[in-house]
Structure formats: structure tokens, C-alpha cells
């Protein structure tokens, strides 16, 4: 096995997978077979891309990722490729992220961009309708896919590029490390159906209903929550959401760290929450991110 695995410096729950430049070199030729346009228009080409990626690592990368993501004790992998060479451009990162996704499952359609992935910028000035692009505001802890009908088992976030950035560290929290899990997951209000909508930029016209907390197949609590999208039906639901938000943001067990450019966070979406700290103000601030979210293969 040519990739190295270690515990992240902040938590043994987070596994770091380092991909060497010499191995990435072996991907340049098979990746050139696929343009980003062909990947977008021909879904079967993404499987071919993922197979090329797995073969470079002796078919062990897919096994490792699936083990990490499906293990409640871990559930998050950070993939750190050595990409200092200019041949590893942003198209290469799109392809690498695509390959990683298709080693574990099928991505969902991302309505925000009309593709199987989304690319978006966070900049100094912003007129969007979502906290996602508000550079100088904390992006509070949440899970993805709260407002869509599709299941969202996992999430990929890849840092494509950044300029004039300080602050903006990634923040994550494992549900089992949260001090208030038992109290709030067992609250009957958290198990009621909440209505979830989304702002216009998400391009989702419908609303969905589901509880904040439910159980996995082993009876352990899982969460589906983001602060901007629930529409409380009464005082009880509104006050529960405030209590939940406060308890998450005040947790002493949140993990915070900078994500290197080119790196990918790959997380189980049921028991890991993620967010981002506010950036320090700079008129030239720019960060580009890539997002893929989807379901595990059956």
C-alpha cells in the first residue's frame, strides 16, 4: 500500500491519508482521458476514473475509505495529496475528488449548480442568501442535505484554491463527543417532524419534513440539522432549535484546524457535523471549494 495513514493531530477519530506525488503522477495519463465536461455529461465515465484511482493504490484505497467512513468510531478521512507541481491543476482536483466519491458511492444531483458536484467561492464581498458564502460570519455546525428528498450519507469538501486568507479554519464535531447528545437526542421535540426549506440559491422548490434526531440501524442517535433552513411550527420547536444551536456552538469538543489547499475532508454525514470559523477581513480574500455529497453503494 503506497499511501500513508495516520491519526489527525486533533483527534484519533479523524484519519489522514497522504497521497504521494509519485503516485499522483501515475494518474495524470488516465485522468487526461476524461474532461470535466465528459464527467458531467456521462456518469459512467466517473466509475472508470475511480477505478483508475483505485488501481494506482492496489485497490486498497476504496477499502480503506469505506472502512473509515462506515466506522462510528472514526467516520472522517482527510485526504492530503502532494500537489505542489503545476501539473496538478484545479481540473485534476475535480477529477481526484470525483474518483474518491465514486470509490464509496453515488453522488446526489446538486441543484445549486445542476451537476453532481458544486464549486463555489467565498470572497470579501457577498450578496448571496446563504451563510455558506458569508466570509466574516461563522458557518455554524451542521449536516448537509437537510432540505432535499435524497439521502445524504456522506460529504466531500475539497479546498481548490485560496488567496489572502487568514482564519476560516474548518470546524467539525463527532456526535458521540458532544456533551449534550443524550439530553437533546432524547428530547421528544427533537424527534418530531420539522419543516425544512432552503433559500432561492439552492434551486429547490419543495420543502421536506423530518426530525432533527433519529436512530441508525444499531439504535444510535444520528442528526440532520442546519440552523438556517428549519421552519419551526410552534414555540416548542423554535425554542428547541435555539437550545440545540447554543449547545452545539458552545461544545468544548469541537475540533478546529486549517485544511491545506488541495486537501479533501470526507465525512459520514449522520454523526459528524461540520462548519467553518469566520475569516479575518481582507479585500482580496478568495477561497474556492468543491462539494460532493451522496449515498453509499448498496
Detailed description of the structure:
The protein folds into two domains: 4-138 and 148-168 and 257-296, Clavaminate synthase-like (Double-stranded beta-helix, 4-Layer Sandwich); 177-249, no CATH class. Helix content is 25%, strand content 29%. It contains seven helices and 17 strands. The chain has helices spanning 21-32, 36-41, 43-56, 61-70, 90-102, 181-185, 235-249, and strands at residues 4-8, 11-19, 76-81, 105-107, 118-123, 139-142, 154-163, 170-174, 194-196, 208-210, 213-215, 221-223, 230-231, 255-257, 264-268, 272-276, 286-296. Strands 1, 2, 3, 4, 5, 7, 15 and 17 form an eight-stranded mixed sheet that branches. It has a four-stranded antiparallel sheet with strand order 6-16-8-14, with helices on one face. The protein has a three-stranded antiparallel sheet with strand order 10-9-13, with no helix packed on it. The protein is globular, with a radius of gyration of 19 Å. The mean pLDDT is 95.
Secondary-structure topology with pairs:
Blueprint: E1 4-8, E2 11-19, H1 21-32, H2 36-41, H3 43-56, H4 61-70, E3 76-81, H5 90-102, E4 105-107, E5 118-123, E6 139-142, E7 154-163, E8 170-174, H6 181-185, E9 194-196, E10 208-210, E11 213-215, E12 221-223, E13 230-231, H7 235-249, E14 255-257, E15 264-268, E16 272-276, E17 286-296
Parallel strand pairs: 2-3
Antiparallel strand pairs: 1-2, 3-15, 4-17, 5-17, 6-16, 7-15, 7-17, 8-14, 8-16, 9-10, 9-13, 11-12
Amino acid at each position: 500500500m503506497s499511501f500513508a495513514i495516520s491519526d489527525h493531530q486533533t483527534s484519533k477519530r479523524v484519519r489522514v491519508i497522504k497521497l504521494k506525488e509519485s503516485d499522483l503522477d501515475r494518474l495524470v495519463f488516465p485522468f487526461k482521458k476524461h474532461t470535466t465536461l465528459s464527467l458531467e455529461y456521462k456518469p459512467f465515465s466517473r466509475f472508470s476514473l475511480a477505478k483508475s484511482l483505485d488501481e494506482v493504490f492496489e485497490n486498497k484505497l476504496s477499502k480503506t475509505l469505506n472502512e473509515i467512513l462506515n466506522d462510528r468510531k472514526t467516520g472522517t478521512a482527510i485526504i492530503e495529496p502532494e500537489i505542489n507541481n503545476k501539473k496538478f491543476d484545479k481540473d485534476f482536483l475535480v477529477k481526484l475528488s470525483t474518483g474518491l466519491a465514486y470509490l464509496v458511492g453515488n453522488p446526489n444531483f446538486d441543484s445549486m449548480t445542476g451537476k453532481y458536484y458544486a464549486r463555489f467561492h467565498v470572497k470579501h464581498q457577498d450578496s448571496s442568501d446563504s451563510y455558506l458564502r458569508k466570509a466574516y460570519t461563522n458557518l455554524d455546525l451542521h449536516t448537509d442535505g437537510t432540505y432535499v428528498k435524497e439521502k445524504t450519507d456522506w460529504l466531500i469538501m475539497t479546498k481548490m484554491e485560496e488567496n489572502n486568507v487568514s482564519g476560516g479554519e474548518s470546524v467539525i464535531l463527532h456526535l458521540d463527543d458532544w456533551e449534550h447528545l443524550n439530553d437533546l437526542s432524547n428530547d421528544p421535540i427533537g424527534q418530531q417532524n420539522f419543516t425544512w426549506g432552503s433559500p432561492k440559491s439552492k434551486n429547490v422548490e419543495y420543502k421536506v419534513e423530518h426530525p432533527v434526531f433519529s436512530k441508525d440501524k444499531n439504535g444510535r442517535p444520528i442528526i440532520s440539522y442546519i440552523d438556517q433552513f428549519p421552519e419551526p411550527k410552534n414555540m416548542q420547536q423554535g425554542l428547541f432549535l435555539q437550545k440545540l444551536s447554543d449547545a452545539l456552538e458552545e461544545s468544548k469538543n469541537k475540533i478546529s484546524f486549517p485544511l491545506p489547499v488541495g486537501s479533501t475532508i470526507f465525512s459520514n454525514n449522520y454523526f459528524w457535523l461540520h462548519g467553518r470559523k469566520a475569516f479575518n477581513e481582507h479585500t482580496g480574500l478568495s477561497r474556492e471549494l468543491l462539494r460532493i455529497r451522496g449515498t453509499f453503494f448498496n
